[in-house]
Amino acid sequence: MNILSKKIGIIGGGQLGKMMILDAKRLGFYCATLDPTKHCPSHSISDAHIIAPFDDRDALRQLAEMTDVLTYEFEHIDAEFLNILEDEGYTIYPSPKALLKIQDKYEQNKMLKSAGIPIPDFKNITSIDELNDYVKDRGFKGMLKSRLGGYDGKGNYLIRSEADVEEAYTTLASNGSPIMVEEFIPFIMEVSVLATRGIEGDIVIYPVGENIHKNSILDETIVPARVSGEVHKKAHDIAWKVMEVFEGVGMFCVELFVTEDGSVLVNEVAPRPHNSGHYTIEGCLTSQFEQHIRAITGLPLGHVELLGPCVMKNLLGQEGEFGKTRIEGLVECLSEPELKLHLYGKEETKAFRKMGHLTVLSSSIEEALEKARQGYSQIKIMAEKG
Amino acid sequence: MNILSKKIGIIGGGQLGKMMILDAKRLGFYCATLDPTKHCPSHSISDAHIIAPFDDRDALRQLAEMTDVLTYEFEHIDAEFLNILEDEGYTIYPSPKALLKIQDKYEQNKMLKSAGIPIPDFKNITSIDELNDYVKDRGFKGMLKSRLGGYDGKGNYLIRSEADVEEAYTTLASNGSPIMVEEFIPFIMEVSVLATRGIEGDIVIYPVGENIHKNSILDETIVPARVSGEVHKKAHDIAWKVMEVFEGVGMFCVELFVTEDGSVLVNEVAPRPHNSGHYTIEGCLTSQFEQHIRAITGLPLGHVELLGPCVMKNLLGQEGEFGKTRIEGLVECLSEPELKLHLYGKEETKAFRKMGHLTVLSSSIEEALEKARQGYSQIKIMAEKG
Questions:
Q1: For the CA atoms of chain A, what is the radius of gyration?
Q2: Residue B176: which residues within 8 A CB-CB, separation 6 or more?
Q3: For B285, which of A27, A46, A340 is closest by C-beta distance?
Q4: In A, which residues are within 8 Å of B286 by CB distance?
Q5: Rounded Cα distance, B23 and A21, in Å
Q6: Do A351 and A322 meet the contact criterion of CB atoms below 8 Å apart?
Q7: pLDDT per position as a tens digit, A333-380
Q8: Residue B199 gets which letter from DSSP?
Q9: B152 at the A interface (CB within 8 A)?
Q10: Which of A241, A327, B121, B299 could pair covalently with B294 via S-S, beta carbons 3.0-4.6 A apart?
Q11: Which residues pair with A49 in a beta bridge?
Q12: ipTM higher than threshold 0.90
């Protein structure tokens, strides 16, 4: 089959889906989206848009039937049904078999551990007593996690003292997901590495990015990460091993903790382009989105070296603002010529919703940071006054 | 008005319109297209598509009414009617008044000349005797041109000897456009410079690109052009002056001749993003398309410095191939990781039709040239066998 006549189906029409399509369109691909929101970010640039809930199996089957390869922009989807579709012969990347393992953080950790990849100690938790025993041995410190469905810190509860144990347990146990606990890692930095595997098994690894979170949501990514050469190498090697473990085709993001003694441990793995990889649009010749499209359509993978130091900063919906999106300070923000702005086109804003991001590629990290923060201070995502 | 709620209307849905929309969408803009071809390159990424001939005044008015700023991807459009719309209060960039002058090469040359910008000598021609007198004085050498509507060498006739005069005249005089003649410039290189003017009058000038034509169609653009620093400066200064002459808002491309003695003369001016500026997608932080969108929507202009040496090469429909597009050698072409491929998504191919382009950004011009030509040699734009 002529590769370009491969039609791509994407589950999810948010910003990640939109940015995948923008790059797929440059290469001339047809893209269909499944998303319940009519005016989602991907809507106006999709060749077709199935408006249906993500768990609508008829809609998922319809998307698979009208396209040649299925992919997804987030991992909390019906992996079991995708597995059925794959067994029926539909092409889905990354494979639903890898996705099923990754979706469940406990299973993910077990796989990583048995491959010898450094991760925090962890334990499945089925009662408050089990939790209590686990954290008591560790000075009442630990990270309680929903095994399924968490993101942006949701589904996590940091236990800092004995007093936190009960609330942590009752909060997460009532969510309907099984839970697990991880030892608390006193990390000095969070970093992430994008890795992509092609259909032929070829692997490319992007530079290491340094991630700064605010309220458990990614705020800034600084590339290259300000860590030693040794830490860069460890992070790179771990990402490579992770790709071998999951045998996934497509873009994966490996989030890592760096500790004071220079240890590097996997926090979690996402089987898709990732917020911390947005810098690649300007920072690398091949963006994470184009790379993902190349991988899942069987094209050779592109160049991943950094073109220059860069900083990505997320633009979230302002606290206290809810309703039709209105951008303030656009001109002021863009008055820095090295600043590149991305607005996702979400019709409605709310507090902390990811509405866009900005990237500065400059001659040094310090300069990029200063310009990114200056531009960021000028722009606000507000709601129209009712 | 909130700048982002400005809707953009684009006359023309070819590759230039498509690439404008891809960048406008990153910034979150709404884009409507007018193009007679349903499955034109812009179709699937436009928020709205009016399918009508370019000279359909009702359709042009409809596009103006449904958007807040009109622009165009090619200059051979109904500038007179756009002028009427502008006088009625619609916003159109670049201004139809500049467009009317630029459309007519004779008027364009007169404006450039009176501003003291170096151009070849030229003369309006209304009879074969006038033409004969003009070229006789110049050793029977000259370039006869249709004043209106030429592109990619169409509408030009190079007179090389006395024997060419009659055929040149009868060929072009029968085209329905008035004609003019220019002295023949024995140039050693053709270069071009992109220049953009914002709504506030701010101007940015891109690096100088070296253009190599084949069969009068652009084949390669090499940036930076391999000319002296003095020629770079002259080209830059001329582009700046041209922007002042036309007072245009938006992207302009100034095509120039470079002679052996280092003179630089304007060949022609296009009031739009240009094939020779495609390198800016990878080669600069702000592509010519994003820059155009920024200019016409009133946003500050972006960074235009070159990120590294690059080479753009056009992909034309193979000679002898006509019909549904089929790409050969895609995988082989993309096996060079530094090569970026752009395919416009035109359903039908024909000989010499612009179907895509490739760009290589590398560590030296020599390396970029070698990789671009190697990739180019692998890919072919064919037609499906009937």
A1: 21
A2: none
A3: A340
A4: 337, 340
A5: 12
A6: yes
A7: 999 999 999 999 999 999 999 999 999 999 999 999 999 999 999 999
A8: T
A9: no
A10: B299
A11: A33
A12: yes
